[in-house]
Amino acid sequence: MSQKLKEQRLKELAFVGVDTHKDEHTACIANCFGQSLGVFTSENRPKELKGLLEKVDETAKSHNLKPVFGLEDVMGLGQHLARSLISGGYHLKEVNPIETERKRLKNAHPDKSDPLDALAISRVLITDFDKLPTIQSLNEIYLAIHELSNRRDSLVKEKTRIKNKLHILLHREYPYYQTMFKNTFSKAALAFWERFPIASLLKGIGVERLAQYLRANSNNTVSTKKALSILKLVDKDSVPSCLNLVHSSIIRNLVKHLRFIEEQI
Fold first, then answer.
1. What is the pLDDT tens value at each position of the chain, 265 positions in all?
2. C-alpha distances in angstroms, 179 versus 74, 193, 195?
3. Where are the domains of the chain?
4. Which of 154, 195, 199, 240 is the most exposed place for a label (fewest CB within 10 A)?
């Protein structure tokens, strides 16, 4: 296609950049010169998205233009809108967020807002129209893997957060806690923290009884010697304060939460 024909085709299009978010989308319609023809906001729900498309169609029609859409997050936050566009027969392009950022920073006022981001996406559509990938369908297998991957990443971050919190609380209750178990979060260690989150709970617990408890929670890998070394470290006769009791409750809850997350991962 000659350059003249390309330019003529672009003049017939309305370039709709959509800044997608979890709860709300912002669409900016621009002509081939990158001038905004309208900005619309819609909740990320089927009925509202339908209304958004109707407004876009009306605006494009009033300028004798045909709308084409550009989305950054087709497989993520823009997934529902992408499905609506594909099923509605609209031309959909996937826009690289890096290009959007470059376009936004070139503005005289490179502030960040949803309308400005949407306009930047529209302008990337204009300048890179033939280079951008056209989306004609959504790969459901990819989407499923994407969702699972995001879920796992979230769980891993939560697991790290819980472990960090446990480190802080265990240090307050057992300053020497890292010498008590080789692995602070082993099966035996977690069982111990849950049953004895503060030292005063070990009062009346003998070596053999503690050893039996730890063996039962470690596939028989904890020795009586280990139980003895733990009891020698702790001050079982200390009187728990209100703060100790609060720590006790939090530690137990964190251990339960950590176990749940590890099962999910």
1. 556 666 778 899 999 999 999 899 999 999 999 999 999 999 998 889 999 999 999 999 999 999 999 998 887 888 889 989 999 999 999 998 888 888 777 765 555 678 889 999 999 999 999 999 898 887 777 777 877 888 999 999 999 999 999 999 999 999 999 999 999 999 999 999 999 999 999 999 999 999 999 999 998 888 899 999 999 998 887 889 999 999 999 999 999 999 999 999 8
2. 50, 14, 18
3. 3-138, 143-264
4. 154
Sign, CA dihedral 49-50-53-54, equals: negative
CA distance 261 to 248: 20
Superfamily for the 3-138 domain = Ribonuclease H-like superfamily/Ribonuclease H (3.30.420.10)
Q: How many degrees, rounded to 5, is the angle at CA 102 between CA 96 and CA 107?
A: 130
